[in-house]
């Protein structure tokens, strides 16, 4: 019985071992078959895509260049043509010459051969205009007493410059209103403090000077040698605080009895007189004890700087005498000259003081009044002023006013001086 049981257990062990062997061999066979089936289609040593890429021309990746992924480096027709051109200057070193070809400069050659040009005020065909002016001017000048007396009488009757050209305590009492001539709705009431700044009476009342020079600042005075002639007159009026010293004295003189001072002539240069005022005061010393005519009541914005100029003179006690131009006189002058054909919005300072001179002077001479960009004798270019070439912003038309002055010259009312002194 025990022998049978042991024999049965031995048979079961052999059977189990056989099954394990069959399972192992089956697994091994299945793995081999699967491996062979997948390996038959793979060629690890072939890389067709990389080989084709290597045969192309070198390209730039889209990560480093967004706009050049379609560029073929071996095709660059534009750069080759550029290299064949004449050498150019890079835009980094020359902002205006990047398109210049150094071997072709015909416009520049023509410009160099021309006479020096004048800026935006250059008059095209000005020789015709100037020759027409000279037709009237070249006539031998003689004073026409009848014409002179007519204008003097009309100016005295309608404008009364000898009494009303400047504000005085006699013509503008405390409590009266000063109407701005440039702003009709504005006025300034005369307080005791303002009244104190006025001259007691007009310095022109019941006075007449034999010869007067009204000196403008035109570039025509450059190298004119008119200084001695101007200084030889009895009364000299100058405009807008002009320079008189050093190289200018021989051509414009130095004698001064009235000098006008528009705020624009000193506000920017001297910081509006808000800080140090000594430089401004020192600049006035060359005018001696003359009257400084200030247009304090033409516009409201002109009043503060004109008052500061007056206070500066008082504080430093220099001999020049600040006086205020009377806006009523300016309005009367404007109405008078409009009746004579002048149609300007505002009269120039030069025409204002010339009108005053016709009232208070027997013989009136004008220097430095020439509104054109070329000299009447030789047509050489002129600067705007005899001391600089800075253009002014005019409310008025200088050529139109010059036409009036030329007419007065032709009628023998006043004498307009052009060119060098001693040649006329």
Automatic annotation (TrEMBL):
<dbReference type="GO" id="GO:0006491">
    <property type="term" value="P:N-glycan processing"/>
</dbReference>
<keyword id="KW-1015">Disulfide bond</keyword>
<keyword id="KW-0328">Glycosyltransferase</keyword>
<keyword id="KW-0735">Signal-anchor</keyword>
<dbReference type="InterPro" id="IPR050943">
    <property type="entry name" value="Glycosyltr_29_Sialyltrsf"/>
</dbReference>
<feature type="region of interest" description="Disordered">
    <location>
        <begin position="44"/>
        <end position="123"/>
    </location>
</feature>
<keyword id="KW-0333">Golgi apparatus</keyword>
<dbReference type="Pfam" id="PF00777">
    <property type="entry name" value="Glyco_transf_29"/>
</dbReference>
<keyword id="KW-0808">Transferase</keyword>
<feature type="compositionally biased region" description="Basic and acidic residues">
    <location>
        <begin position="98"/>
        <end position="115"/>
    </location>
</feature>
<keyword id="KW-1133">Transmembrane helix</keyword>
<feature type="compositionally biased region" description="Basic and acidic residues">
    <location>
        <begin position="69"/>
        <end position="86"/>
    </location>
</feature>
<dbReference type="InterPro" id="IPR038578">
    <property type="entry name" value="GT29-like_sf"/>
</dbReference>
<feature type="transmembrane region" description="Helical">
    <location>
        <begin position="15"/>
        <end position="36"/>
    </location>
</feature>
<feature type="compositionally biased region" description="Basic and acidic residues">
    <location>
        <begin position="44"/>
        <end position="57"/>
    </location>
</feature>
<protein>
    <submittedName>
        <fullName>Alpha-2,8-sialyltransferase 8E-like</fullName>
    </submittedName>
</protein>
<keyword id="KW-0472">Membrane</keyword>
<dbReference type="InterPro" id="IPR001675">
    <property type="entry name" value="Glyco_trans_29"/>
</dbReference>
<dbReference type="GO" id="GO:0003828">
    <property type="term" value="F:alpha-N-acetylneuraminate alpha-2,8-sialyltransferase activity"/>
</dbReference>
<dbReference type="GO" id="GO:0000139">
    <property type="term" value="C:Golgi membrane"/>
</dbReference>
<keyword id="KW-0325">Glycoprotein</keyword>
<keyword id="KW-0812">Transmembrane</keyword>
<dbReference type="GO" id="GO:0009311">
    <property type="term" value="P:oligosaccharide metabolic process"/>
</dbReference>
<comment type="similarity">
    <text>Belongs to the glycosyltransferase 29 family.</text>
</comment>
